[in-house]
Amino acid sequence: MRFRLTPRETSFYDMFAASADNIVTGSKLLMELLGADASARAEIAERMRAAEHAGDDATHAIFHQLNSSFITPFDREDIYSLASSLDDIMDFMEEAVDLVVLYNVEELPKGVDQQIEVLARAAELTAEAMPHLRTMENLTEYWIEVNRLENQADQIHRKLLAHLFNGKYDAMEVLKLKQIVDVLEEAADAFEHVANTVETIAVKES
């Protein structure tokens, strides 16, 4: 690790960890959604909305700290990118839950459960990785695994699209369901963006 003569602002590490922990909360709410009937989904959506607001607060706190800190633990643009990508994950998960409720989807297509399981695993890995930013050690397996999960998510997404366009759904239902599975795919992409940013930071700091 690069030797530094100046002290570093360390509160960023705690804020990144808090943001990632909040994403785990969001992924658990997605899992709840799978087993919930229509009457319970509105309450889950409300809790997801609260989690998304908490994520926004965490992101704004990081930006405020960034703007008020003379010394940062790593490059400012990387701090901004990491915070923004973590926020994107939460936004996409909240959007997916909201769409399920707004569209009054009676039954999610087979394969959405696999999408959500991938997101839940990526959330766990991301939360486990954030504390390692302090030392930049033991992170390689994290970004390799998240990239593997994103590839898996791509395959699941393609199969879901093929299923939606097989003629069993009417056109309006296809539009609704496709938007939901597309947003979940965007969440998987956002996890990969986080992992790629962490890799970039680690390489710079090595």
Automatic annotation (TrEMBL):
Coiled coil: none annotated. This is Phosphate transport regulator. It comes from the Bacteria. It holds the Pfam family PhoU_div. SUPFAM superfamilies: PhoU-like (SSF109755). Belongs to the UPF0111 family.
